[in-house]
Amino acid sequence: MGTEEKYYPGLDGVIAAETSISFLDTKLGEIVIKGYDLIELSKTKEYLDIVHLLLENSLPSAVEKAAVEERLKVEYEVPQEVINILNQLPKQTHPMDGLRTGISALAGYDDQLEDNSESLNKGRAYKLLSKVPNIVANSYRLINKEEPIQPLQELSYSANFFYMITGRKPSPLEEQIFDKSLVLYSEHELPNSTFTARVIASTLSDLYGALTGAVASLKGHLHGGANEAVMYMLLEAKTVVNFEELLQKKLYNKEKIMGFGHRVYMKKMDPRALMMKEALKQLCDMKGDDLLYQMCEAGERVMEREKGLYPNLDYYAAPVYWMLGIPIPLYTPIFFSSRTIGLCAHVIEQHNHNRLYRPRVNYIGERHILSK
Questions:
Q1: What's the pLDDT score for residue 89?
Q2: Which of 188, 262, 346, 351 is flagged as catalytic?
Q3: Sign of the torsion angle spanned by Cα atoms 316, 321, 222, 17
Q4: How far apart are CA 99 and CA 212, in angstroms?
Q5: What is the per-residue pLDDT for 26?
Q6: Same domain, yes or no, for 100 and 183?
Q7: Same domain for 213 and 253?
Q8: Would you call 314 a catalytic residue per the annotation?
Q9: What is the mean pLDDT of residues 51-73?
Q10: Could you report the per-residue pLDDT of 68-115, keeping only the tens digit for each?
Q11: Domain count of the chain?
């Protein structure tokens, strides 16, 4: 016996925040970031352009963009004590758990942690953007009993990130495609991890705490973990025919198939996925091996025919990362690293215009009266 209020499972369709950061315009098919179409941005702009746009509210000039990169490079190093903590984690630790631990530990090095002013939060955002790739790469290396790798100052931000997770410098095409993936993952309105970060921030908790919670949210296979699951399916199948059969079998068994469907993109392909599909084609052409591209296209046809479902970003990001030589367990941490800028922007906005989140429930349990 609950209230008479309308119940929306999963808060589906509920407007939970007002924001000037981003908006999924399903009518026009656009992902709006500070007034710009993200897909159009991804064709001509780089990740650091998006960083400046989300933190400083404008696309940067060449001088401003160079200043952002220099500011990030100064903060690349992670405190040795944090590295020592990561080195103590058990070998079976998931890289997302290593990332969560590392971000949480960074909070201890902020002596103004209780001050959530916009200026200090922006400074924290730049520091996190600098250090998160380092934590991603080295938590994974330490978990696997490998020596930490040091950032290379002479490389661009994206090229250095690529180097730290693969151990090699990218080719120009690899750097361009990797950077584009960071742009496409950078911000996406109010998915679970962003909502989590805003809920935590609404208590006036700090930026590190909000992002730590967001890591835990993004780890789940129904959110960021989907890209890993997609790659494991492709590797299991090995051929186009086997992949089609694998998907048919999963559909017959009513299993959820990762990489398809999206709460917002219900009747069409995620526009970000189309950009990664094009990137996959470029990489396949460069390497003279289009097997993964053919498998993914075959999977698209099966899912559209059988379920009317279309690929989301994770479906094509996974084989792109595989072709770039990135270890599968790092796919979701890279997603989070990309999204760090969007998360920071949302936390800053929440702190600047705060109202504590405190929803209600529709009670469906019993009521009892204690006898006297």
A1: 94
A2: 262
A3: negative
A4: 8
A5: 82
A6: yes
A7: no
A8: yes
A9: 98
A10: 999 999 999 999 999 999 999 999 999 999 999 999 999 999 999 999
A11: 2
- Same structural domain, 105 and 247: no
Q: Domain range spanning residue 299?
A: 226-323
97 is catalytic: no
Does residue 12 have an active-site annotation?
no
In a domain, residue 14? The reply is: no
Q: Examine residue 8 and state whether it is found in any structural domain, yes or no.
A: no
Q: Exactly one of 52, 94, 314, 346 is catalytic; which is it?
A: 314
Q: Is 145 a member of any domain?
A: yes
Q: Is residue 330 part of a domain?
A: no
Mean pLDDT of the chain: 94
Residue 162, both tokens: 């690529």
Strand duo 22-25 + 30-33: pairing = antiparallel
